[in-house]
Task: inverse folding
């Protein structure tokens, strides 16, 4: 049986419309299919491959660590240099009082850890999250979703979760002395790329400070240069109480973390001790990959080039079928004039060899979030493929 057939038969699917791209290998800006086709990655596996695919420094770090030691003991028991060096470098870069790093394997686990730590630290149980936010698919993170269409079959969700609308200042009064934490993304990603307006994040932090509520910023998608700053909270001038990271952190390897002040993080280790643990969190091979990734990101100009690359994309991406382009750095949401155009448009672009993607909560917008290493020619080529697809659609549907 072909790999494709075996995949459909034995690998669990998460939707009824898998892209089914059979990957041969990937390098830099490109993913190659087993059919010999070459795809320009305008998507980064959803904001993961910021350094492109198989960056040589990351590959070398993985190789070296894999042949030195892999798993030795569950997280937090043994001192493993890749984790320690990573935590030291990250907190030095952050330079904002967030000095303690708890390693996990994925974004959703970072979210779970933060929800538990917030309840424990504050002794409160109410959690606020934003409408149209996505924080992961484990039950705690899932409970933060506002969209009943997604949550209805998983009920009951965890108690104590309430929602506020992102960018709605009036609703900040819902944060009270009963609120353990507010969790939000600095730029709402799956809602279709919604940046914060009018110092919203600062105002939210202010309200959290007044009420003794912890502000948790989920930078799982915005982190590691995506918005043009190493972290988006620096761009929007706010320091969260807890910072969550994953996705691009490992340069293609699975790793995430919750970062907090030492004083907050200390509560993880007591009452009860071992109340939140993980076997593989901060796996040494993944931590070594993360360390190499962070060194490349901070030792090159990729992040400082984000803003001019964003501007170039926006300048080129003009078409009568495009209603709006929302962006924060190299995370862009391109809204078409009708939701009916979205699937045929995405299909055309992918068949032409450029990978773009949907959002969870915006039925008329597609996502562009390329590796930060993308160059001008690749941007011009990718955008021209998108514009050609839109022209084709305009003619086929006789849109005037
Ligand atoms: C903002 C945000 N938070 C959390 C997650 C969950 O991360 P993971 O898929 O690694 O569990 C995602 C994943 O898309 C995300 O975009």
Result:
């Amino acid at each position: 049986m072909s790999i494709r057939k075996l995949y459909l038969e034995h690998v669990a699917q998460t939707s009824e419309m898998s892209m089914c791209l059979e990957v041969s290998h990937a390098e830099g800006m490109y993913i190659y299919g087993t059919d010999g086709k070459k795809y320009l990655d305008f998507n980064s596996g959803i904001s993961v491959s910021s350094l492109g695919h198989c960056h040589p420094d990351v590959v070398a770090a993985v190789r070296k660590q894999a042949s030195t030691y892999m798993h030795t003991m569950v997280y937090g028991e043994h001192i493993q240099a890749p984790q320690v060096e990573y935590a030291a470098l990250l907190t030095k870069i952050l330079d904002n009082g967030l000095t303690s790093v708890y390693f996990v394997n994925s974004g959703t686990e970072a979210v779970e850890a933060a929800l538990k730590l917030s309840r424990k630290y504050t002794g409160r149980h109410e959690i606020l999250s934003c409408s149209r936010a996505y924080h992961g698919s484990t039950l705690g993170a899932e409970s933060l979703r506002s969209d009943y269409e997604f949550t209805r079959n998983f009920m009951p969700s965890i108690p104590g979760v309430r929602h506020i609308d992102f960018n709605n200042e009036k609703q900040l009064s819902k944060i009270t002395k009963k609120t353990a934490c507010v969790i939000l993304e600095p730029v709402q990603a799956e809602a279709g790329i919604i940046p914060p307006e009018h110092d919203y994040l600062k105002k939210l932090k202010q309200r959290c400070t007044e009420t003794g509520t912890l502000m948790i910023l989920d930078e799982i998608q915005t982190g590691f240069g995506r918005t043009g700053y190493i972290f988006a909270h620096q761009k929007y001038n706010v320091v969260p109480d807890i910072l969550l990271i994953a996705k691009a952190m490992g340069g293609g390897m699975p790793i995430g973390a919750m970062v907090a002040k030492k004083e907050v993080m200390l509560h993880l280790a007591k009452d009860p001790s071992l109340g939140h643990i993980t076997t593989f969190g901060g796996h040494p091979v993944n931590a070594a990959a993360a360390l190499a990734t962070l060194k490349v990101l901070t030792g090159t100009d990729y992040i400082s080039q984000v803003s001019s690359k964003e501007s170039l994309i926006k300048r080129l991406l003009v078409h009568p079928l495009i209603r709006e382009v929302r962006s924060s750095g190299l995370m862009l949401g391109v809204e078409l004039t009708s939701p009916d155009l979205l699937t045929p448009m995405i299909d055309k672009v992918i068949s032409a060899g450029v990978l773009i993607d949907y959002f969870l909560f915006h039925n008329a917008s597609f996502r562009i979030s390329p590796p930060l290493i993308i160059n001008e020619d690749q941007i011009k080529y990718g955008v021209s493929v998108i514009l050609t697809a839109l022209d084709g659609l305009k003619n086929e549907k006789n849109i005037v």
Notes: The domain at 3-54+302-396 is CATH 3.90.1150.10 (Aspartate Aminotransferase, domain 1). The chain has 14 helices and 15 strands.
